[in-house]
């Protein structure tokens, strides 16, 4: 007898015995079954069945744009897709802790993805870092991220063999070695491809040869034809395709630092710092990946500039974030991030100009952007307070810099180079291309003079490029020249610590909806437009993408 010829009651009874995954698979077979499976009563019964199975007290879906079928699929993905459901809280005995339990026992994992280095603070407040670079195969059907050489290098340092009875993944989370660069690795060939840094590409564009990867791109293509080199930071500005790569990178970070199982616990929150210009499609796809594939219990998306203001405790300030490949200026007014402006110029421009100068002088044997983009080399550079004074010097003083290169034999090479005017000309060319004073002036136009004084009186510098010698004093001088009516108000706040990880440090201070923020005077706020938004697993199951309609 044909299955479709059975009475509707019997068909519904048979379908009730199927899992959610089976129901969605059956609905793809023919139009008649799809029409039968769309019955709201069928999915409502599956909803109550799933809630009783996991001991959930979720109300029935009531939003008109969210059908019960979609809510059941999200509930199944958040609780069953990983093989085992998320654990329950030992205190409140629920799979998603209420706010009163979080207020006392909450722990969090904070993640900031930068243009060169990604920083992670785990639940024990340990600061970890990882290179911000992703190498993915060119074949769309194979979406896995290639193995990371940094993790393999840690495994070799500790002397563990893959055939040992001890799982080497449990011992990968030690302090990084003296190798400070970023690595790419392919397990099929086991070739070290170079001491490389992040490469930024336009979202949705296939990979091509970039200056920073010029030494190794040919090797990459020979090992993995059609591979794509991505910057995770640029994936925030892409679509669903880039969000898949970004979600894989976030999962890789959590797994390598043993936080993937932690974020599934109901009392642990994942705080992710969002850069300027994050596209709505990438945000929605990333939230779906984090909740459904990584099964996080609670997620917070926080603006990077707002996190920097939280670190200092300022409710009105001007944040300048300059990293490896981009610079963002953001206005934070009354505890909320407002207007912002972006420029694709950063510290990599200094390395490019230094490399060009060394090649002109004939010192191009081992010169590469990755070897020049290091803190030891940048410490010898300076941004002149007055470039005219530097040009008046007839003979610029030579200074020795030591550059570490990666040899093809594996052992590093340390060579000495003598540079003169290049040490201040390279930062000057970068600063001229950046046009930072003009960016700040355009953002301040149209604001009340009192607000402008408050903003210029609290300028915060973050990002490794702002650590360049003379950067702060030069910026103060140029702002006083371009805004003479506010020349006595310009002040750059100084504080202890490095500017590369202060965003992730500030993100640890994002308030819970049940607590009071240093920048807010009310409790119970789960969403501050342009600054942060809190999302729980249960809210995502019930509302889905509609939860982000008023997000950052």
From TrEMBL:
Family named by the database record: Belongs to the actin family.
Source organism of this protein record: Ornithodoros turicata
Record Pfam families: Actin, F-box-like
Stretches assigned to the F-box domain: 1-46
Protein name: Putative actin-like protein 13e
InterPro entries xrefs: Actin, ATPase_NBD, F-box-like_dom_sf, F-box_dom
């Amino acid at each position: 007898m044909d299955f479709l010829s059975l009475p509707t009651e019997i068909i519904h009874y048979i379908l009730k015995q199927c899992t959610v995954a089976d129901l969605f698979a059956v609905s793809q077979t023919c139009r008649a079954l799809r029409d039968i499976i769309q019955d709201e009563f069928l999915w409502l019964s599956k909803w109550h069945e799933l809630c009783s199975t996991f001991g959930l007290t979720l109300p029935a879906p009531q939003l008109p744009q969210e059908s019960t079928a979609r809510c059941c699929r999200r509930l199944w993905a958040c609780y069953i897709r990983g093989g085992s459901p998320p654990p329950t809280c030992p205190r409140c005995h629920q799979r998603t802790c209420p706010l009163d339990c979080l207020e006392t026992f909450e722990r969090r994992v904070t993640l900031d993805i930068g243009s060169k280095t990604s920083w992670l603070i785990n639940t024990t407040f340990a600061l970890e870092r990882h290179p911000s670079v992703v190498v993915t195969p060119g074949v769309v059907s194979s979406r896995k991220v290639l193995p990371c050489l940094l993790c393999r290098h840690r495994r070799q340092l500790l002397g563990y063999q893959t055939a040992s009875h001890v799982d080497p993944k449990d011992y990968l989370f030690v302090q990084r070695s003296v190798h400070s660069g970023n690595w790419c690795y392919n397990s099929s060939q086991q070739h070290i491809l170079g001491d490389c840094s992040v490469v930024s590409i336009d979202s949705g564009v296939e990979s091509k040869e970039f200056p920073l990867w010029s030494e190794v791109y040919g090797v990459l293509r020979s090992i993995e034809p059609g591979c794509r080199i991505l910057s995770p930071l640029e994936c925030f500005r892409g679509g669903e395709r880039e969000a898949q790569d970004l979600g894989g990178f976030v999962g890789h970070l959590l797994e390598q630092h043993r936080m993937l199982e932690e974020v599934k616990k109901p009392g642990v929150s994942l705080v992710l710092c969002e850069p300027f210009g994050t596209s709505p499609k990438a945000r929605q796809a990333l939230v779906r990946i984090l909740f459904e594939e990584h099964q996080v219990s609670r997620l917070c998306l926080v603006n990077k500039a707002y996190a920097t203001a939280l670190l200092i405790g300022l409710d009105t300030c001007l944040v300048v974030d300059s990293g490896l490949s981009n610079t963002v200026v953001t206005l934070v007014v009354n505890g909320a991030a407002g207007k912002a402006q972006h420029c694709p110029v950063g510290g990599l421009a200094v390395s490019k100009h230094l490399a060009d100068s060394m090649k002109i002088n004939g010192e191009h044997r081992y010169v590469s952007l990755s070897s020049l983009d290091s803190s030891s080399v940048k410490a010898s550079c300076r941004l002149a307070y007055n470039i005219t004074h530097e040009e008046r010097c007839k003979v610029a003083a030579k200074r020795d810099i030591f550059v570490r290169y990666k040899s093809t034999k594996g052992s590093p090479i340390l060579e000495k180079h003598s540079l003169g005017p290049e040490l201040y000309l390279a930062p000057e060319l970068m600063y001229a291309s950046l046009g930072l004073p003009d960016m700040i002036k355009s953002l301040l136009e149209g604001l009340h003079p009192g607000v402008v004084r408050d903003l210029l009186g609290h300028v915060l510098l973050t990002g490794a490029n702002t650590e360049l010698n003379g950067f702060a004093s030069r910026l103060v001088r140029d702002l006083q020249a371009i805004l003479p009516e506010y020349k006595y108000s310009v002040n750059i706040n100084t504080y202890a610590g490095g500017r590369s990880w202060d965003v992730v440090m500030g993100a640890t201070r994002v308030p819970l909806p049940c607590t009071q923020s240093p920048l807010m005077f009310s409790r119970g706020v789960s969403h501050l437009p342009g600054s942060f938004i809190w999302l729980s697993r249960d809210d995502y199951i019930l509302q889905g993408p509609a939860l982000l309609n008023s997000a950052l």
